[in-house]
Amino acid sequence: MTDAMHAHEEATADFDLVVIGAGPAGMAAALAASRGGLSTLLIDEQPAVGGQIYRSITDTDAQRERILGPDYSHGAALAREVLEANAAGRLTHWSGTAVWQVAPDKTLHVLRESRTQAVRGRAIIVATGAMERPFPVPGWTLPGVMTAGAGQILLKSASLVPSTPVVLAGCGPLLYLLAAQYLRAGVPLRAILDTTAGTDLRLVLRHARDLLAGWQYVGKGLRLLREIKAAGVPFFHDVQQLRLEGHDRLERVSFTAGGKVQVLDCQLALLHQGVVPNTQISWSLRARHRWDDTQLCWLPECDEWGQLSVPGIHVAGDGAAIGGALVAALQGELAALGAMRGLGAGDAAVIGRRAAELRAQIHHHLAIRPFLNRQYRPRDSYRIPADEVMVCRCEEVTAGAIREQVTIGCIGPNQTKSFSRCGMGPCQGRQCGLTVTEIIAQASGLPPQEVGYYRIRPPIKALTLGQLAQGDA
After folding, report:
1. Taking a C-beta distance cutoff of 8 angstroms, is the pair 432, 423 a contact?
2. Strand, helix or coil at 308?
3. 3-state secondary structure of 246
4. What is the pTM of this model?
5. Rounded CA separation 351/3 (Å)
6. C-alpha–C-alpha distance, residues 363 and 383, integer Å
7. Cα–Cα distance for residue pair 148/169, rounded to 1 Å
């Protein structure tokens, strides 16, 4: 970032705390901080608060709430409290605002109303949530193939649903949730292709105590499965060798299940194999990260308050580790208490007692997570694809090209980026980063921790030179 670029940005506006992301973690953090007396700015790209899980919660109706279920409706009270606090001036909410750079001195550069602007906080909470794990299988780039998350966004934001029978393929609770939501909306389901190997009784016995502690989550999952079964949806288990086929668009899905080759005609398939933390901002800050072999992804290293290795910057919610909406809200409040503590605001004893309560609740909700991580662990073949499969959709780089680069000495994603532009497209490596790390690890024999990740540089989100130039001096 040059001085000439900075000259086109507005004068810095200061807040005690800037929260990035208005999902459950961000909303809870902003509310807790404002109640604690901090001047608080809540920034989000969407036109309204809610994040992905509670998207459009402030502009929904009874029909949509019935389709989406009680977990979605749970966010209404939190969103309403944020709107009331913003209207009363207790916090500031900037909607439609994209953060394209965060500096270690806690200066943020944002794109707001097509203009660049700088804002500085004494502390920052990154609550950017999760993103879907890449699912690179043959044909995943064909028109007619989307992610389950994309399908849910259309349902939540615009009540748009498929008009043709849809195939849902992959693993993880979201797959079952979307299936149930589509059934309530009257969407015909062609089939569900579950890529997990099924429930291992030994795994259940090993995690019996965790499952009892998380009985609400178990019950919720069983109810979803009963709802799907009652609808008579074809359900294939232990799906392997998944391929999406067609010429100019998706025409059929082929796979093996129960030792038999199956082929289903379809025009729309939604893929999903779990979510992973969105770590683009924490990587851009050069914060320390570690490879987690249970969640098969990178996690930012945080202290007990969610603070990164960069002082004064915290991470809360699924951006720190996948835990779900309820845990995210608790972690958001905890991170806000950590920011208050770091800034010398509030009563230390009160903060300590509330933090202990929050950590106990978080521990309770996360009890089932080890079981879920094992039960819905994506297969190696669905994370580390064959040579002909496209890995980087932006720059059209295949898995085979990455492996060839390893043979000539590339042992990290940044080297492969130099050779092939892999990770240099509009998504900035979001859709290929994990896959590239694991391909290189497998091909080189190195652990993912040594392979590393892309060196993320600003702009984190794309902006034009014209938008940059329109910032006020």
Report:
1. yes
2. coil
3. coil
4. 0.93
5. 41
6. 29
7. 9
pLDDT at residue 5 above 50? no
Neighbours of 358 (CB within 10 A): 20
pLDDT digit string, tens, across residues 342-400: 999 999 999 999 999 999 999 999 999 998 998 999 999 999 999 999 999 999 999 99
Q: Give whole-number Cα distances, 261 to 29, 68, 108, 255, 264, in Å.
A: 50, 34, 53, 6, 10
- What residues does 18 pair with on adjacent strands? 41, 124
Interstrand relation of 252-257 and 260-265 (parallel, antiparallel or unpaired):
antiparallel
- Tokens in use for 149? 């998350």
- Average pLDDT, whole number, for the chain? 92
Owner of token pair 């409040």 = 333
pLDDT at 468: 81
Per-residue pLDDT tens over the stretch 111-164: 998 889 999 999 999 999 999 999 999 999 999 999 999 999 999 988 899 999
Q: What is the mean pLDDT of residues 293-313?
A: 97
Closest CA relative to residue 41, chosen from 13, 10, 17:
17
CB 411 within 8 A of CB 302: no
Strand partners, 115: 112
